[in-house]
Please model this.
Amino acid sequence: MSAWPPKPLIGISCCLKPVGPYGTPNHAVSDTYVRVVDRVVGGLPCLIPAMGERGDVSAWLDVCDGFLFTGSRSNVHPSCYGGPPHPADTPEDPARDGVTLPLLRAAIAAGVPVLAICRGMQELNVAFGGTLDQRIQDLPGRLDHSTPTEQRFAPVRTGKAHQVTIREGSLLAAIVGGHALAVNSLHNQGVARLAPRLRVEATAPDGTIEAVTVEGAKAFALGVQWHPEYDYDRDRASRAIFEAFGAAVRAHAAGRRRGVAALAAE
Model:
């Protein structure tokens, strides 16, 4: 029997995707998220199915010590933030939206550490009342954030597309140890109106919001628009983001154990 306590349990948001010749719905997430939770965060990965309104948010809060909200090809449904309908060929996943949006609000309120990546950061903004631009590359004066522009030294998913400027004195600046960072870029949607409780941590050269934190959050709550999970094994700043999340998760798990022990001793 393994020693107690076990590793912290990290909930990882899944998408509902058609798989195979019959398009059978599968709850799926990229292996990159599972590997980084295992190898850097130091947690036990637990996949959260995209069950829509059947997703039991309170139960996930009871069992998880942290949550990783993942990127995805699908976009947050515009009905969640009062936006115009997507073009007909835009991938959507309302079953995921139905779980992640309430879970984000509940996790922040309960003080459970949260790391939100790409779509996850967009969900974070929508969950707290913000809106999204659906295709940043179509807006005047904006960069095409959907594909990296420099691929001389790295594959497409890890190539650094542009710099971000990090706010002085921010959580992200403390984590990565500086105020500028080269990042990859693989998204069409982005923050339009920032949610009232969110604070900008970093911006791209065209003004696109690239990282946010939640004001008044009781625990670690960071959203990044890029994908640090693709190069955590060779990029110091990418790894540092997951290490900081892992430290917050372990602190939260230790606090929960102390609370359980105190109750048991009464």
Notes: Confidence is low (pLDDT under 50) at residues 150-154.
